[in-house]
């Protein structure tokens, strides 16, 4: 049994599980960012500024930027999920190899 390899495998498995729990929360918090900005920042502005056309144009541009960022994060989330699954499989392989490998004794 090779303990060092098994420990590395366990770290990879724990990292893969943690990544599967963190990434969806990260994307959902970024998805809620435009509504949060509009709700908190815009409500604090005076009425004449809230209804101005230049602010509406800036708000539309900001929303299109957030939409683009959301689509990029969604694709990033897919890549991160695939890589964490691969990392988990590698971790399982290392733990299995470490458990089945025989120690070589030098004579």
Q: Overview of this structure, please?
A:
The chain has 107 residues and is an all-alpha fold. It has one domain (3-33, 55-100). The protein has four helices and no strands. The longest helix is centred in the C-terminal third of the chain and has 48 residues, at 53-100. It is rod-shaped and about 90 Å long.
What's the SSE blueprint?
Elements: H1 3-31, H2 33-40, H3 47-50, H4 53-100
Helix pairs in contact: 1-4
Features:
mainly alpha; 83% helix
Instruction: Round the mean pLDDT to the nearest integer and report it.
Output: 78
Order of helices and strands: HHHH
Q: How much is the radius of gyration in Å?
A: 24 Å
Number of domains: 1
User: What does the oligomeric state look like here?
Assistant: single chain
Distance linking N and C termini: 19 Å
Unreliable sequence segments = none
**Share of residues in helices:** over 70%
Structural class call reads mainly alpha
Overall 3D form: rod-shaped
Largest sheet: none
% residues in beta strands = under 5%
Instruction: Count helical runs.
Output: 4
Number of strands: 0
């Amino acid at each position: 049994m090779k303990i060092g390899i098994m420990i590395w495998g366990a770290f990879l498995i724990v990292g893969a599980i943690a990544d599967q729990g963190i990434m969806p929360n990260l994307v959902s918090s970024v998805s809620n960012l435009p509504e949060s900005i509009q709700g908190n920042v815009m409500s604090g502005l005076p009425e004449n500024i809230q209804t101005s056309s230049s602010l509406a144009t800036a708000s539309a541009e900001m929303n299109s930027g957030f939409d683009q960022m959301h689509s990029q994060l969604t694709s990033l989330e897919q890549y991160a999920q695939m890589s964490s699954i691969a990392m988990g499989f590698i971790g399982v392989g290392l733990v299995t190899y470490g458990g089945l490998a025989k120690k070589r004794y030098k004579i």
